[in-house]
């Protein structure tokens, strides 16, 4: 509404004087202000703030009259009356200095268009030269208590109980009359006034008085503290024609101020509160409307120490009131009591070091022009205000527009964003590149989206053009278009508009045209036209004008409609303009765009006139007028759905009363179809109905959306201290026929914490603004200037959701509502609603007869996020209220089990914390075990780690027994779960909840007690048992990849466990199915043989060896893919290649590989390399966790028989095909690294059967050779040897029938197979002859059979013998550290940086 900005300024008087100015009184137009000191009267100009003239009383006269006390201007600014201490009224004539006498004139540079001015134009921007002349003083012979200026008279109240009426011009006896207060009859209302005076007014006088134009009477505060209202019974003020009413039960009144627009009287009291009264139109009695007072909640230190109210001052537009007290301080309220600003708290009252400031005591207070300034003593405070205060046509838009004295603040986002997101039907304008507005019929949502409206707290500030401002200050009206991209402002004369696209202002090219029009009824945007209600000074005529935005601002391009009466208010609804005029009539006009001429224009046609003079006592009382499609039937009874979108009703805010006029549809409706569309007769309006009281603003929209009809067909009201109200339509559920006795709409009140300035209808949000302060500690000490006592004020954007208030109100009335569930923050709304209801009911001292919480709980069970909502609310609520909450929503154990069924483990973890506090440790452990096992099964490693910590904590804190869960459950909670089906499809992955900490604080004994250690041991054993069980389960199901991740993520000692399980669960029952499972698990392709392999040139041994050389030289077949033909590493003798060389190349490749992953892991990657272990006998790399790359080259002796001269041969097409086939037979690099690592783990643990299976999938002959060589060792049980033999034979059989791609590899390891079979004591199985015969068929000359050349990196990973001592791995038995390399993708995502950051402890 009104917001403080910046620091206050201080008035510096240029005249040297010992006297301090103490009273400032503005003229009626507020262009001049009179400043009083004890013997001096000065007149200042308001913009620029300069002293024009000063009158200094002589010491002799000062002795005769006494010091100056108060001043009052004549309404036409031609005279000033000054009241003095000894009962004199001094009248001064304010004389102008002639036509061309100016005290200050603006200086323009040469060639400026502003020099060619019209006659009479110059004075608007110059400070005139004035002089003051004192007339004969009037002696009233008693101290003067109050001055009140009327049109021709001056009312003066004196301390002897008289009311003097002085004529401004006539002096002497015939120019004045005195009325004694005791002759005025006072009563409680006008009906009981006939019985003569009812108040004893002997010795009482009027302490303070103010005239109210719209009530036609005087609000008075009597010297005994009583409050009254005096009405003249006819136009003249004489004793027998005055009648008074007084307010009962008030005896401590101090001052009064009246609000002409809302017909209110604000009386200050000695208690510090302000009582706002209205006059009851039926009885004429004074009735209290509301109170303005500081609350102990917000101002606990000062609310009852303010002292009496000193001054009350309404703003020029009557939308806010400023109050100050005897002890000092300023406080601002809206007209119906919404508190906006107070300088008695926070940064206004305290310095940054916490010391209290003394509030500044204010002796006089008045507002400047249009309310942009407030004079408080000699300090001038600056305000920016909402455009709604004077131009309420912006109420059907979704932007917040504020205007200060010289700038506009708006909330819209970046125009380029809006342009990008704008409707596809929008076309760019040829002139300024801005999009022309889409056709109004097109129902596109013009709301800019939450991101642009709520993305930040900063304003878009537009400086008003200085050329326009200097001659037309102050700005009176401002408007913004629906898209939030164009603004228009109107000052004293003319108007100007601005586009965010071009960042340019458009002013009238012809200054005469600008100066010959005054905007009277406001301005609004219709598509790309500015609609202006103005007065034409040349023709002395009221007009309605439309100016096209892209044309030059000139009357030649305007569409002008003559009006019969002055316009007070203007608004636009779709293609209609509604005007409210001075004769209390409402006119509806239709606008139509015309594109026939060179410039687009608009034609305006009068549709309907509605006279309201019967209902409106004074035209100035109408605050706003708007057309809306809202009506009481909510469109259900309308046959044609499109009729619901037409202008159905007129909403009129009459001094805070919202009045609705609906169209009268009681008559025959046939004519609408029969008559042609162009001359359709509009329906008349029904008599008005009052919808609400104390209304400050109204919001409605002309858009429609069937999915959100509740929000778009509603009417939103701002009601001051009563918060907001919404008038909602009620639609029957499931399209049932509505009950005739049920109301079709409902008015719901709700409170919000911000002052509403705009409503986003679809998004169910209120936008507002709030004052923020920044403390600057200025000069410490006595020399600190006055203004430095105040902090620097800024205005910030705010927003608030209100849906939970409305849902709650509907639930109280048994009216549920589901249409808003699609909003992104709907879960938050539900949580807020549960929280607010729970806090109110659980902390209530009296029993609640009809509690709402069970109803709310039943309502939210209908939504999928019910379980999260409850647990989030519980964890944000104190423990004492949990019993009440879970008595209504259900037992937490049941809710925990529901989470497990719905696979929502994160939410289940939150319920576990609640169970831990509400149940005994045994129950917590039981549920934690359940959750731990489920988390293990689903691979939720973060959660698993927390569960391990949690289980240990439970074990340690077993001695503490929390209170049991409440057993008394209301029947409603059991019904909830009976009627509720749990959605199993709702996976935990799609739930965007934060991670939960399951740490419990517990007090351990100071010394290391044996009992504590035993408990800890038992707890660790319990956890280990669960981990072993899970590992066994994974191994039984041949889920090696999951087993590896499980080990790496939870630090499970896999090698140690496998050693123990070597002859139990760690042996392979079915080699073929295990091999198939590994292929599936690691996404490893089954090998294939090209069809032409039998006739391929590779049969030639020379080519084969060349190919192997090529592969060797390129380090790996993978590097063909990487185009990294780096052969520099290859030395003259390939056998001399060491593991270190391979590692160097590996590190380089690994950097490039890991750079694709997150960089945070790269330092750890380098740390993970183990130190080099060399074996003098054989040089090979240890197949350990450190082999992170496939490029380590370890060369077997069989590979070195290469013809040196053949290296110059180029590869043929067939060879390239063969290489590509070889690459196609290989799985992802990540899988290869993981398999190599697992191979190392199984080797270390001595699980030879698994080594054979992994060797087969990797097709690494060295692994098979090594395993078979180990089988001869006496340590290996005979059962294992037998198992390996039968397994390999089974694989051979399967390969021959189902997977011929493995045949070449089996042929390659044929000698080892044969050796295994021969070494057995049993008879050789007949199947073994099959591979032998096959290999001889392929041709023995090939040495190793017709197998494709094995890849060098496949043969490099031969594992260390069992006896070799390996360095310990980073997590014991875990996967190597960089998770981006070694963990499956689903786990990589879950590992964030925040591991170990879960420290918030629950007591």
TrEMBL record:
Subcellular compartments: Membrane
Domain RIC1 C-terminal alpha solenoid region: 804-956
Polar residues biased stretches: 1322-1334
InterPro entries in alphabetical order: Ric1, RIC1_C, WD40/YVTN_repeat-like_dom_sf, WD40_repeat_dom_sf
Keyword annotations: Membrane
Biased composition, class Acidic residues, residue ranges: 1383-1397
Domain of life: Eukaryota
A single BP term in Gene Ontology: retrograde transport, endosome to Golgi
Segments forming a coiled coil: none
PANTHER family hit by this protein: GUANINE NUCLEOTIDE EXCHANGE FACTOR SUBUNIT RIC1 (PTHR22746:SF10), RAB6A-GEF COMPLEX PARTNER PROTEIN 1 (PTHR22746)
Protein name: Protein RIC1 homolog
Source organism of the structure: Pleuronectes platessa
């Amino acid at each position: 509404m009104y917001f403080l900005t910046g620091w206050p300024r201080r008035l510096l008087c240029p005249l040297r004087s010992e006297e301090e100015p103490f009273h400032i009184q503005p003229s009626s137009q507020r262009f001049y202000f009179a400043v009083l000191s004890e013997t001096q009267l000065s007149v200042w100009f308001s913009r620029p703030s300069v002293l024009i003239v000063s009158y200094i009383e002589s010491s002799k006269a000062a002795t005769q009259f006494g010091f100056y006390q108060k001043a009052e201007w004549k309404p036409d600014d031609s005279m000033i009356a000054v009241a003095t201490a000894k009962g004199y009224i001094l009248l001064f004539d304010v004389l102008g200095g002639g036509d061309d006498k100016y005290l200050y004139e603006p200086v323009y540079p040469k060639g400026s268009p502003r020099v060619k001015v019209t006659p009479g134009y110059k004075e608007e921007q110059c400070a005139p030269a004035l002089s003051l002349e004192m007339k004969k003083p009037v002696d009233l012979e008693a101290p003067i208590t109050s001055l009140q200026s009327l049109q021709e008279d001056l009312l003066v109240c004196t301390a002897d109980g008289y009311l003097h009426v002085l004529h401004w011009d006539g002096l002497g006896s015939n120019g004045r009359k005195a009325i004694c207060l005791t002759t005025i009859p006072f009563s409680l209302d006008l009906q009981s006034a006939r019985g003569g005076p009812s108040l004893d007014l002997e010795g009482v006088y009027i302490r303070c008085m103010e005239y109210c134009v719209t009530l036609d009477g005087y609000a008075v505060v009597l010297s005994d503290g009583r409050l009254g209202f005096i009405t003249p019974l006819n136009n003249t003020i004489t004793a027998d024609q005055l009648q008074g009413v007084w307010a009962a039960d008030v005896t401590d009144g101090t001052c009064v101020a009246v609000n002409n627009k809302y017909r209110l009287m604000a009386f200050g009291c000695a208690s510090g509160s302000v009582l706002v009264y209205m006059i009851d139109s039926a009885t004429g009695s004074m009735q209290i409307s509301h109170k303005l007072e500081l609350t102990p909640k917000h101002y606990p230190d000062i609310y009852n120490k303010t002292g009496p109210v000193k001054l009350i001052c309404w703003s020029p537009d009557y939308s806010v009131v400023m109050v100050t007290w005897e002890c000092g301080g300023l406080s601002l309220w809206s007209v119906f009591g919404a508190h906006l600003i107070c300088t008695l708290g926070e940064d206004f009252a305290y310095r940054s070091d916490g010391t209290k400031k003394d509030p500044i005591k204010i002796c006089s207070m008045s507002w400047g022009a249009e309310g942009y300034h407030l004079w408080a003593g000699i300090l001038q405070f600056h305000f920016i205000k909402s455009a709604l205060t004077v131009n309420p046509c912006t109420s059907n838009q979704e932007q917040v527009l504020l205007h200060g004295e010289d700038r506009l603040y708006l909330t819209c986002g970046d125009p380029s964003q809006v342009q990008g997101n704008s409707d596809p039907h929008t076309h760019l304008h040829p002139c300024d590149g801005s999009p022309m507005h889409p056709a109004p019929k097109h129902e596109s949502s013009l709301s800019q989206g939450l991101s642009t409206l709520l993305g930040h707290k900063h304003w878009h500030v537009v400086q008003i053009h200085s050329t326009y401002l200097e001659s037309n200050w102050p700005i009176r009206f401002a408007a913004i278009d629906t898209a939030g991209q164009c603004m228009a402002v109107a000052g004293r004369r003319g108007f100007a508009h601005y586009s965010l696209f071009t960042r340019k202002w458009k002013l009238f090219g012809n200054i005469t045209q600008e100066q010959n029009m005054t905007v009277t009824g406001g301005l609004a945007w219709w598509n790309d036209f500015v609609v202006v209600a103005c007065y034409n000074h040349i023709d002395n005529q009221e007009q309605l004008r439309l100016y096209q935005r892209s044309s030059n601002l000139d009357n030649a391009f305007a569409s002008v409609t003559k009006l019969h009466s002055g316009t007070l208010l203007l608004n636009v609804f779709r293609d209609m303009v509604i005007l409210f005029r001075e004769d209390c009539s409402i006119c509806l006009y239709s606008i139509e765009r015309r594109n026939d001429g060179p410039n687009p224009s608009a034609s305006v046609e009068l549709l309907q006139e509605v006279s309201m003079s019967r209902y409106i006592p004074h035209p100035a009382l109408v605050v706003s007028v708007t057309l809306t499609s809202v009506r009481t039937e909510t469109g259900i009874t309308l046959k044609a759905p499109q009729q619901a979108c037409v202008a159905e009703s007129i909403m009129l805010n009459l001094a805070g009363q919202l009045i609705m006029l609906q169209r009268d549809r009681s008559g025959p409706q046939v004519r609408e179809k029969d008559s042609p569309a162009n001359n359709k007769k509009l329906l008349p309006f029904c008599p008005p109905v009052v919808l609400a009281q104390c209304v400050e603003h109204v919001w409605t929209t002309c858009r429609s959306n069937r999915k959100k009809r509740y929000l778009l067909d509603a009417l939103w009201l701002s009601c001051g201290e009563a918060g907001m109200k919404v008038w909602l339509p009620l639609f029957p559920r499931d399209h049932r026929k509505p009950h005739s006795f049920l109301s079709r709409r409902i008015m719901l009140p709700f409170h919000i914490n911000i002052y509403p300035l705009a409503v986003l209808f679809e998004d169910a949000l209120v936008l507002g603004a709030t004052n923020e302060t920044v403390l600057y500690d200025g000069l410490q000490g006595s020399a600190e200037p006055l203004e430095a006592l105040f902090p620097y004020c800024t205005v910030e954007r705010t927003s608030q959701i209100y849906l939970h208030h409305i849902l709650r109100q509907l639930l109280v009335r048994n009216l549920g509502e589901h249409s808003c569930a699609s909003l992104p923050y709907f879960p938050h709304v539900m949580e807020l609603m549960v929280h607010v209801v729970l806090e109110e009911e659980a902390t209530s001292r009296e029993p609640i007869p009809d509690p709402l919480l069970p109803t709310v709980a039943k309502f939210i069970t209908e939504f999928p996020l019910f379980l999260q909502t409850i647990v989030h609310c519980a964890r944000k609520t104190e423990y004492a209220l949990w019993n009440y909450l879970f008595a209504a929503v259900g037992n937490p154990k049941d809710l925990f089990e529901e989470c497990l069924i719905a696979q929502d483990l994160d939410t289940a973890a939150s319920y576990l914390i609640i169970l831990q506090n509400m149940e005994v440790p045994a129950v917590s452990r039981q549920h934690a075990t359940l959750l731990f096992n489920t988390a293990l099964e689903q691979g939720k490693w973060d959660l698993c780690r927390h569960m391990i910590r949690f289980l240990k904590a439970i074990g340690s804190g077993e001695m503490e027994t929390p209170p049991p869960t409440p057993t008394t459950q209301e029947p409603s909670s059991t019904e909830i779960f009976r009627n509720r089906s749990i959605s199993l499809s709702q996976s935990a992955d799609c739930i965007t909840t934060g991670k939960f900490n399951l740490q419990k604080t517990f007090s351990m004994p100071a010394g290391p007690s044996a009992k504590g250690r035993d408990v800890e041991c038992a707890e660790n054993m319990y956890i280990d048992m669960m981990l072993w069980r899970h590992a066994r389960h994974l191994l039984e199901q041949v889920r090696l990849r999951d087993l590896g991740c499980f080990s790496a993520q939870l630090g499970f000692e896999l090698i140690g466990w496998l050693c123990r399980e070597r002859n139990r669960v760690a042996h392979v029952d079915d080699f073929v199915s295990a091999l198939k499972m590994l292929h599936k698990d690691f996404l490893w392709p089954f090998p294939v043989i090209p069809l032409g392999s039998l006739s391929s040139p590779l049969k030639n041994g020379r080519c084969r060896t060349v190919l192997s050389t090529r592969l060797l030289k390129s380090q790996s077949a993978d590097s063909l893919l990487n185009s990294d033909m780096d052969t520099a590493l290859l030395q003259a003798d390939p056998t001399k290649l060491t593991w270190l060389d391979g590692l160097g190349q590996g590190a380089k490749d690994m950097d490039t590989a890991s750079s694709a992953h997150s960089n945070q892991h790269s330092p750890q990657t380098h740390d993970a390399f183990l130190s080099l272990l060399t074996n003098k006998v054989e040089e090979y790399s240890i197949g350990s966790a450190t082999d992170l790359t496939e490029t380590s080259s370890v060369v077997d002796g069989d590979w070195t028989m290469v013809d040196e001269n053949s290296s110059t041969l180029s590869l043929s097409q067939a060879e390239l095909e063969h290489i590509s086939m070889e690459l196609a037979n290989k799985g992802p690099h990540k899988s290869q690294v993981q398999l190599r690592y697992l191979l190392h783990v199984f080797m270390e643990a001595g699980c030879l059967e698994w080594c054979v299976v992994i060797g087969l999938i990797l097709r690494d002959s060295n692994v098979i050779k090594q395993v078979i060589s180990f089988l001869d060792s006496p340590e290996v049980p005979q059962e294992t040897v037998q198992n390996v033999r039968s397994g390999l034979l089974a694989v051979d059989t399967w390969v021959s029938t189902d997977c011929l791609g493995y045949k070449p590899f089996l042929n390659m390891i044929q000698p080892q197979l044969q050796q295994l079979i021969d070494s057995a004591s049993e008879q050789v199985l007949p199947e073994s002859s099959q591979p032998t015969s096959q290999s001889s068929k392929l041709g023995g000359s090939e040495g190793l059979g017709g197998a494709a050349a094995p890849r060098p990196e496949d043969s490099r990973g031969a594992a260390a013998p069992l006896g070799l001592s390996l360095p310990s791995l980073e997590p014991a038995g875990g996967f190597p550290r960089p998770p981006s390399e070694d963990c499956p993708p689903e786990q990589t995502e879950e590992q964030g940086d925040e591991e170990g950051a879960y420290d918030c402890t629950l007591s």
